[in-house]
Amino acid sequence: MNHAAKSILIFGIYTFTGGLLFILFPDFFLTFLHIPSEEPVMFRIIGVLVLCYGYFYIRASFKQKKMVDFYTWTTHTRALSPLFLTLCVIPGYIHPIVITFGIADLSGAIWTHCALRAEHKKTLL
């Protein structure tokens, strides 16, 4: 498994696990994120979506030759995550602690981007 595929796999495990934990323990995350937990069922639904998202990443990591375009696309969306979250923090829609998830997304995007560049340079040699 090349480094780009590993970064996608790790991100997939991170999101899959996060989704699963959100399904099982929504009140814990809602308290941690300073979100009122009046309707935890909606957050369980979000957990299912995040779990599915993680599953796609995990599966894509094992198809490294056929998924390079997907890997590249993920760097675009994951890099936007902290910007979007910051824009939600500024007017007070969400607590600043939520930005830590955006930082994790950005870190993963940078790792994948660097790995893809290194793989591309190897193929040019």
What does this structure look like?
It is a single chain. With 125 residues, the chain is mostly helical. The chain has one domain. Helix content is 79%, strand content 0%. The model has no long low-confidence stretch (mean pLDDT 88).
Beta-strand fraction estimate: under 5%
User: Secondary-structure element sequence?
Assistant: HHHHH
Helix proportion range: over 70%
Number of domains: 1
- Shape descriptor: globular
Q: Name the structural class.
A: mainly alpha
The whole-angstrom Rg is 16 Å
Q: Please state the average pLDDT score.
A: 88
Q: Unreliable stretches, pLDDT < 50, 5 or more residues?
A: none
What is the end-to-end distance?
Answer: 20 Å
Let me know the number of strands.
0
Largest sheet: none
Figure out the total of helices. Answer: 5
